[in-house]
Amino acid sequence: MPDDHGRFLAAGPRVGLRPFTLDDAGEFTARAEESVALHTPWLFPPRTPERYAAYAGALIEEPARAGFLACEREEGGRIAGFLTINNIVHGAFRSGALGYGAFAHAAGRGLMGEALGLLLGHAFGPMGLHRLEANIQPGNAPSRALVVRAGFRLEGFSPAMLLIDGAWRDHERWALTAPCG
Ligand SMILES: CC(C)(COP(=O)(O)OP(=O)(O)OC[C@H]1O[C@@H](n2cnc3c(N)ncnc32)[C@H](O)[C@@H]1OP(=O)(O)O)[C@@H](O)C(=O)NCCC(=O)NCCS
Question: Where does the chain cross the membrane (predicted)?
Answer without folding.
Answer: none
